[in-house]
Amino acid sequence: MSQKLVIFFGPPGAGKGTQAERYASSKSFAHVSTGVMLRDHVENKTELGLIAKEVLDSGKLVSDELVIAMLKERLDYEDASEGAVLDGFPRTIPQAKSLDSLVDNNEIVAIVLFEVNKKELIDRVLLRGRADDNETVIEERIKIYEEEIGPLLDHYKEKNIIHINGVGDVGSIYKELSNSLSKFL
Ligand code: AMP
């Protein structure tokens, strides 16, 4: 059986992690967040974590090579056999291209784009208080997101792209999300 993939895009603080987690568990898909995986490495002080820590703290992106290897391995886990929600990957065109070479084109079923205005994002992220959630770093992360998202959406222009307004209560956003995705999954 083929593995179905849904890609969630959205700026930091858009709430896509929460929605990805919930949606993935409703479908028995894996929730694959490269950010969570990297933070786990940092916390456990693995070799990879020691390399990645400084980059994560600065808000910049970790090397394509490193995240591609990590993702490739993750998609082979048993819990991803039916499908996966990709949260935070791909972030660059080389990452998108390597994903294309890893899976069949028709396995990428839909793209979800969470939209939240910048002021709301900054307010939310400052409340969250993660190590990379201070005001300077969040500005940097939003800037990087804004630079990457255009080319990525262009790369996936033949795909079903679902726009979700990420402002509102978690439950209503989830309803809208699962309704929209039910057309494709
Ligand atoms: P996130 O939790 O998705 O916001 O990711 C947190 C941080 O992890 C980012 O600011 C990057 O430093 C790093 N990161 C996560 N995913 C990727 C990726 N696909 N490519 C490069 N860096 C990533």
Shape: globular
Mean pLDDT, nearest integer? 96
Bound molecules: adenosine monophosphate
Strand order of the largest sheet: 2-3-1-4-5
Number of strands: 5
The residue ranges in which pLDDT falls below 50 over 5 or more consecutive positions are: none
**Rg over alpha carbons:** 16 Å
How does the major sheet shape up?
Answer: 5 strands, parallel
Q: Give the structural class.
A: alpha/beta
Total helix count? 8
User: H/E order of the elements?
Assistant: EHEHHHEHEHHEH
CATH topology (level 3) name: Rossmann fold
Counting structural domains, the number is 1
Throw out a few tags for this protein.
185 residues, alpha/beta, Rossmann fold, 5-stranded parallel β-sheet, 15% strand, globular, binds adenosine monophosphate
Structure overview:
It is built from eight helices and five strands; from the N terminus they run βαβαααβαβααβα. It is an alpha/beta fold. The protein has a single domain, classed as Rossmann fold, CATH 3.40.50.300. Helix 2 packs across helix 3, helix 4 (64-75) runs parallel beside helix 5 (93-102) and helix 6 packs across helix 7 (135-155). The model has no long low-confidence stretch (mean pLDDT 96). It binds adenosine monophosphate. Residues 12, 34-35, 38, 55-56, 59-62, 67, 88-89, 91, 95, 132, 141 line the site of adenosine monophosphate (AMP).
